[in-house]
């Protein structure tokens, strides 16, 4: 960790950083476990000016204010004093995997989060997913929001970056014009964590210790549930408990799950290209496009 960052930590906390070590993750910036001179352990994210740390801090504070979801407390959010280069958070100890008990606990926490509603879909500010801008202009229609601000926005970004072939984007546009076949207009806005993969779920002795790296907005809860299956984050223990608390509508596992997972697949195409392009191709084939 650079000396100038250690100086920022000392000014923000009033205590010097005596030991640091890298932690995994961190699309928005590098992540460190920091032991302070006063004995406290915190997490520091560092990045470049305008790199998104201010947005991440704002998302974490929003979740803390609007829900009971366990997330790191923000100790210091980027401002003029550090030029968006430092985000400090409480450290959440974690150990163990997502066993059946932890999955059931996750279901209870996410069902409660999804009970936090809004009048429209979107958010007061644009958020981030994987370090990429995620637009959140308010919209009364989930179908229109999902079409314009998720599928087409990220598909176009991936195409402009040279990672999604134009022919696939044309097929994506065709699917976007047929969403009323699967989305009936009865969807309700729920507050979402927005990036529900295993690396963002911290466990400790069969319980969820915390959720990190959010990509928040108000959307249909099913897109969060779908994302949790894309990389096998949650399985049957989660969905059994979640369904007890918030019944999952028929057709989710059969069709809508794969429809919604087109969005995180497009995010991965934009970030990485490669095999994710083939996954998008197969999904479009599945829906006849």
Structure description:
- The structure is a single chain.
- Helices cover 42% and strands 17% of the residues.
- The radius of gyration is 19 Å and the shape is globular.
- The longest helix is centred in the middle third of the chain and has 19 residues, at 142-160.
- The mean pLDDT is 94.
- The protein is of the alpha+beta class and 289 residues long.
- The termini are far apart.
- A hairpin with a 2-residue loop joins strand 6 and strand 7 (132-134).
- It has helices spanning 3-13, 53-66, 100-114, 142-160, 166-176, 221-230, 236-245, 252-260, 262-272, 275-286, and strands spanning 17-22, 30-36, 41-46, 74-76, 86-90, 127-129, 132-134, 190-192, 201-204, 207-211, 217-219.
- The strands form four sheets. The protein has a five-stranded antiparallel sheet. Strands 6-7 form a two-stranded antiparallel sheet.
- The chain has two domains: 3-90, Phosphorylase Kinase, domain 1; 100-286, Aminoglycoside phosphotransferase (APH), C-terminal lobe (Aminoglycoside 3'-phosphotransferase, Chain: A, domain 2), CATH 3.90.1200.10.
């Amino acid at each position: 960790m650079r000396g100038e960052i250690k100086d920022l930590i000392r000014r923000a906390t009033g205590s010097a950083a005596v030991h640091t070590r890298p932690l995994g993750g961190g699309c928005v910036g590098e992540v460190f476990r920091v032991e302070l001179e006063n004995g406290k352990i915190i997490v520091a994210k560092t990045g470049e000016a305008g790199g998104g740390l201010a947005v991440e801090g704002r998302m974490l504070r929003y979740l803390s204010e609007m829900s009971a979801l366990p997330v790191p407390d923000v100790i210091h959010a980027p401002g003029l004093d550090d030029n968006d280069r430092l985000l400090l958070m409480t450290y959440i100890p974690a150990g163990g995997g997502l066993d059946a008990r932890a999955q059931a606990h996750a279901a209870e926490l996410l069902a409660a989060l999804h009970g936090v509603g809004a009048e429209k879909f979107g958010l007061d500010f644009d958020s981030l997913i994987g370090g990429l801008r995620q637009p959140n202009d308010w919209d009364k229609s989930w179908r229109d929001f999902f079409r314009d601000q998720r599928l087409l926005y990220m598909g176009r970004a991936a195409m402009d970056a040279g990672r999604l072939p134009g022919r696939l984007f044309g097929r994506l546009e065709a699917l976007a014009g047929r969403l009323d076949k699967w989305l009936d207009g009865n969807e309700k806005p729920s507050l979402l964590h927005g990036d529900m993969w295993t690396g963002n779920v911290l466990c400790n002795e069969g319980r969820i210790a915390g959720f990190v790296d959010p990509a928040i907005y108000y959307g249909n809860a099913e897109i969060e549930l779908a994302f949790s299956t894309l990389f096998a984050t949650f399985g049957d223990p989660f969905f059994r408990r979640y369904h007890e608390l918030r019944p999952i509508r028929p057709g989710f596992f059969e069709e809508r799950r794969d429809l919604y997972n087109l969005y995180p697949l497009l995010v991965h195409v934009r970030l990485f290209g490669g095999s994710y392009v083939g996954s998008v191709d197969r999904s479009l084939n599945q829906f006849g496009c």
